[in-house]
């Protein structure tokens, strides 16, 4: 959801998300484009999330995750972030811009029924449910400037700012950008506001439509940031009856300015819709760049 401050200033949403399901394997990602370069940063968030989806839903990647160790899982996660960064660099080149104008945070979850792996660069929020306990993890520790964060494009980000963790027994998780931090966490400690997550996962398990959650996000008042709000929720459940175990289901936010999402369900194969991340710069991108310069 586009934040109230962005709407007030006539700006678009700089957040992006993606998720994919391949049998019992799940990948999810959220990203938050830097507010200091609003508009152009939305392309960094979009390309990073869509690239994560394309790379993680490759059948060979899924097989390596399912059969590997926890160390293997963390290396696979690191490879996703490295490739996402490469894709954002290609996008910046295609748009004729410095890559820092596409600066974005990135938060990713991978899971099957045995292991969940999480990673992030920046100030996103990761919450998990394990043995009916709800907790946040991989919280970014701020320095003296509370409104600063690391980005995927930051110098040595993959070495100094990438945080990863593996967990067994995860029955639900949520990935969120920081626009809801004052509502769903204790901002001083980073601890989860448990009623929010418990209720959200209960709605998900009961089959509630995504539009209900979207409306709830849009109706949140006094969030103290006015920032964009993006969340992906996942909860362990049963495979749908009649659905082949290796059928892919996936979705991702649309490109900046499009106002639409993309998704689908296909047999186990490459996701044709995603293609390469880099695309010719649309006319709107130059408009955003001009507005940022002013």
CATH homology-level superfamily: PPM-type phosphatase domain
Helix content: 25-40%
Envelope shape: globular
- The fold-level CATH name is Phosphatase 2c, domain 1
Structural class: alpha+beta
CATH architecture: 4-Layer Sandwich
Major sheet description: 7 strands, antiparallel
Q: Radius of gyration in whole Å, from Cα?
A: 18 Å
Average pLDDT, rounded to a whole number, is 82
- DSSP, total strands: 11
Distance N to C terminus:
25 Å
Description of the molecule:
It is a single chain. This protein has 294 residues and is α+β, with helices and mostly antiparallel strands. It has a single domain, classed as PPM-type phosphatase domain (Phosphatase 2c, domain 1, 4-Layer Sandwich). Helices cover 33% and strands 23% of the residues. It is built from nine helices and eleven strands. The strands form two sheets. It has a seven-stranded antiparallel beta sheet with strand order 7-4-3-2-1-10-11. A four-stranded antiparallel beta sheet has the order 6-5-8-9, covered by helices on one side. Strand 10 and strand 11 form a beta hairpin. The protein is globular and about 45 Å long. The two termini are 25 Å apart. This is PPM-type phosphatase domain-containing protein. InterPro entries: PPM-type-like_dom_sf (IPR036457), PPM-type_phosphatase-like_dom (IPR001932).
């Amino acid at each position: 959801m586009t934040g109230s401050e962005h709407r007030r200033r006539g700006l678009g949403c700089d957040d992006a998300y993606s998720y994919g399901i391949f049998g019992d394997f799940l990948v999810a990602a959220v990203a938050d484009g830097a507010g200091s370069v609003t508009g152009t940063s939305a392309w960094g968030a979009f390309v990073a999330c869509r690239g994560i989806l394309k790379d993680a839903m490759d059948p060979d990647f899924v097989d390596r995750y399912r059969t590997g160790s926890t160390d293997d899982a963390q290396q696979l996660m690191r490879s996703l972030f490295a490739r996402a960064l490469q894709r954002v660099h290609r996008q910046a080149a295609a748009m004729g811009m410095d890559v820092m104008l596409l600066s974005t945070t990135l938060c990713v979850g991978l899971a099957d029924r045995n292991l969940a792996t999480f990673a992030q660069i920046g100030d996103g929020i990761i919450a998990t449910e394990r043995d009916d306990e709800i907790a946040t993890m991989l919280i970014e520790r701020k320095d003296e400037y509370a409104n600063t964060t690391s980005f995927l494009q930051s110098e040595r980000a993959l070495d100094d700012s990438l945080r990863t963790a593996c967990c067994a027994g995860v029955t639900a998780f949520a990935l969120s950008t920081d626009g809801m931090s004052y509502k769903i966490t204790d901002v001083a400690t980073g601890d989860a506001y448990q009623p929010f997550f418990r209720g959200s996962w209960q709605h998900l398990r009961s089959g509630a439509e995504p539009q209900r959650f979207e409306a709830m996000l849009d109706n949140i008042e006094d969030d103290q940031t006015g920032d964009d709000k993006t969340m992906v929720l996942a909860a362990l459940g049963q495979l749908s009856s009649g659905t082949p175990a290796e059928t892919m289901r996936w979705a991702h936010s649309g490109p900046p300015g499009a106002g639409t999402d993309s998704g689908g369900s296909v047999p186990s194969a490459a996701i044709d819709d995603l293609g390469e991340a880099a695309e010719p710069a649309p006319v709107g991108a130059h408009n955003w760049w001009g507005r940022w310069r002013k």
